[in-house]
Amino acid sequence: MNILLTGGSGYIGSHTVALLAGAGNHVVLYDNLCNSHADVVTRLNRIVGRSLVLVQGDVRDADLLERTLQEQRIEAVVHFAGLKAVGESVADPLAYYDNNVTGTLCLLWAMQRCGVRTLVFSSSATVYGDPQYLPVDEMHPTSAVNPYGRSKLHVEEMLSDLAASDGDWRIACMRYFNPVGAHESGLIGEDPSGVPNNLMPYIAQVAAGHRDRLSVYGGDYDTPDGTGVRDFVHVADLADGHLAALNYLGSSEGAGWHAFNLGTGQGYSVLQVVREFERASGREVPYEIVARRPGDVASSYASPDKARLILGWQARRGLDEMCASAWRWQRYGERL
Ligand code: NAD
Ligand code: UD1
Question: How many contiguous H segments (helices) and E segments (strands) does the chain have?
């Protein structure tokens, strides 16, 4: 299949490119490189053993998008491109609505004009707001607690309206829980600029000696050890989930709008992750428990049953592999 991956040189996009290209698809990366490097494509070329196409462009550039869809004879789009930092979205909401909502709208117009109506969208568990019950299934009410989350929710609603208006659209919203880990080759991984906001890259930098200690946000939650519990899911499993979604959308069942959780169904606490990372790296990860981070919930984990039953997808990699691959990337990834 000919597949366009917007945001294809980013963290989750690049792992999905590796999988889809490795499976023999013609993949085209479309990225403005605002949060990634063209060098990722060189590394992807090494992984897949051939030269991939990167179109450097913005999803808000409708002309370039249309040209790319037509010239590359694209049949399906996986839409990763977007901004994703919660704090930044609170400080600069317009940038988030512009990039995430207007950007998606532009993409949809271009797809419609070019007759491409199969789309897999990167959504997030953030659309569930504060979980009202656990595990969170796809029937859980949606809400948003910050502009980033609202931008994802707006897009999901837009996609649902579009699918309801025209039965030719085939759309899957993939609601990722907490993506972590890196490619088994050690060639690609998460590369946050500045101080990492998220747990796993922060721990990796502490283990590597780049930061003194981890601040654990809250030790008095109603969880087994008092620290926050999340559903960490290996990025390579997420890539498998996108392949499964594309296969499903292409099947006789695939018409319409669908939402799928991508998580393991298993929650791990911050301190469990610290201990597992120490085991994987052989390094100590000093930490101190500090005040809760505003906006955090005690626990969040998925019911992955719908993805298993309908897509035939299930996360296969455990916390040990998530930590080991994140550590391999932290140690060796930059040396290439
Ligand atoms: P990332 O920042 O590594 O990748 C996003 C890519 O999109 C980057 O390469 C960036 O340069 C590109 N991009 C951004 N705006 C663009 C635009 N207007 N035009 C073209 N390219 C643009 O992020 P990621 O972690 O790989 O996330 C991918 C998607 O998954 C995002 O939509 C994000 O909101 C969503 N998501 C991520 C997580 C997570 O924890 N990483 C969780 C849930 C959902
Ligand atoms: C974050 C995003 C969420 C997004 C999700 C997907 C925020 C506020 N939320 O969720 O919108 O959908 O990623 O990946 O950014 N922690 C520490 N110390 C740290 C960092 C984190 O103790 O330095 C704790 C947090 O309090 C939390 C857990 O680790 O309990 C996971 O945090 P994080 O990796 O930031 O992910 P989420 O907050 O779950």
Answer: 12, 14
